[in-house]
Automatic annotation (TrEMBL):
SUPFAM superfamilies: Probable bacterial effector-binding domain
Protein name: GyrI-like domain-containing protein
Domain AraC effector-binding, chain residue ranges per copy: 10-160
Pfam families from the UniProt entry: GyrI-like
Length: 164
């Protein structure tokens, strides 16, 4: 059974997120090269993190410093229990705290664009202003033999404070 892109996503909500310490690989990457960047990063990250006896505290994520266009300025990694020391391409980072609009996308990655559009529209319908930073947690780790409809991705979009 297939579903339309964005179908099955949970309703958006507004939350207050805590700042999180992360271990990341950062890059500015052409959209056509994202898969290779993710593959390289998720090979390097566990090695560097475990070598420093740092604990992974979250599913994998991608943090975009601004919404992607032809390129993406992003960090991929994991929330960790403390900062790591730089090791090759792996460095310490953070995900900012503050007001965040959140939506959970159910289904394959090809439907993420529609869910991001849905979240953006919802933010504006609430009279809020979308911020520059967005990030996604890959709650369900993909495997080669899994049904893509079972993937779960948590979308997060920073929200600007409209109060004067």
């Amino acid at each position: 059974m297939t579903s339309e892109p964005g179908a099955g996503a949970s309703g958006p909500e507004l939350i207050t997120a805590d700042q999180e310490t992360t271990a990341v690989v950062r890059g500015v990457v052409r959209m056509s090269e994202l898969r290779g960047f993710f593959d390289h990063s998720f090979q390097a990250l566990p090695v560097a993190i475990s070598a420093q006896d740092v604990a992974i505290m979250s599913p994998a994520f991608a943090f975009y410093h601004q919404p992607p266009g032809e390129t993406a300025d992003l960090e991929v990694g994991f929330i960790t229990d403390r900062a790591i020391q730089p090791d090759g391409d792996v460095a310490a980072g953070s995900i900012p705290g503050g007001r965040v609009a959140r939506l959970v996308h159910l289904g394959g990655y090809e439907g993420l664009g529609a869910s991001w559009e849905r979240l953006n529209s919802w933010i504006r319908e609430q009279g809020l202003t979308p911020g520059q930073t967005i990030w996604e947690y890959y709650v369900t780790e993909p495997t080669p033999d899994m049904d893509p409809s079972e993937l779960r991705t948590e979308l997060n979009w920073s929200v600007e404070d409209n109060q004067g």
